[in-house]
Write a structure and sequence with these properties.
3 domains, mainly alpha, 4% strand, DNA polymerase, domain 1, 253 residues, two-stranded parallel sheet, 2 strands, 42% helix, elongated
């Protein structure tokens, strides 16, 4: 047996490392059998091994090896042959279970269909507009897209200057004098068509409502209501119900 094999056997013992295994080997214990025959006093002579550690090594070596006993083959349970009557009963039971499952699925589908119908998106009411007004609304949306954002003069230069629009003034103002490298000013040319000016994006004319009586003066064909910001929740609910009865569109619900 080589030295490496013996050291591997020694290191398999609890608390024995590579260094201690080599010390034991160098002291003349060149096999596991010799180590078993050695007394506690012989082991204490080795550097780094005290009485307690020597006893632990001896206890580990004296533990008898447990022989593995062959496992008994478990007897397979005998499968009873089913009679024809039993098989028929099983089939009937399976059919009943399948029917119950299908009935439950149908009930679930019906409930889901009802919920879907409730949650379906209802198309919002649209105003009655002339052909010219519809064309002007499309034109206005195009103008709005290409219209630049109007920013205050020299908003980028100082932190104290906000971005909200103010007319530029001053004899040396580059923005007032329309220099090309300065941003655009508010001009008449940026406005939308006059016939649809002030209308909502849907085409309705907006009318602010504060109570139920204000809804009576609204034409539902061309006008829509917007509930005022100072209106409370209770009154808002009443306005919504009344607007639904009168077929008036509310723009902020």
């Amino acid at each position: 047996m080589t030295k490496e094999d013996v050291i591997k056997q020694f290191t398999s013992l609890k608390g024995v490392g590579r260094a201690k295994a080599e010390l034991i080997y160098n002291k003349g214990f060149n096999s596991l059998e010799k180590l078993k025959k050695a007394s506690v006093e012989d082991l204490t002579k080795i550097k780094g091994i005290n009485d307690k550690f020597a006893k632990d090594i001896k206890d580990q070596l004296e533990v008898p090896e447990i022989k593995s006993t062959p496992k008994k083959e478990t007897e397979k349970p005998k499968i009873e042959k089913k009679t024809a009557a039993k098989t028929e009963k099983d089939k009937v039971e399976k059919d009943e279970i399948k029917k119950q499952k299908t009935e439950k699925k149908e009930d679930i589908v019906i409930v889901e269909d009802e919920k879907e119908e409730e949650q379906k998106y209802h198309v919002k009411k649209k105003p009655i507009l002339s052909k010219e007004q519809k064309e002007k609304l499309i034109l206005r949306s195009k103008i709005n897209k290409r219209r630049p954002k109007f920013l205050r003069e020299e908003w980028f230069r100082y932190k104290r200057v906000p971005q909200n629009w103010r007319r530029p003034d001053g004899i040396s103002s580059k923005m007032r004098r329309n220099f090309k490298y300065r941003p655009s000013k508010v001009k008449v040319g940026f406005r939308g068509p006059k016939s649809v000016r002030g209308l909502h994006s849907s085409g309705f004319e907006e009318i602010i409502v504060y109570n139920i009586r204000d809804l009576e003066n609204i034409d539902p064909k061309t006008q829509a209501a917007r509930i005022g910001c100072s209106v409370g929740t209770k009154k808002r609910i009443d306005i919504e119900k009344k607007a639904e009865d009168l077929d008036i569109r509310l723009l902020n619900i």
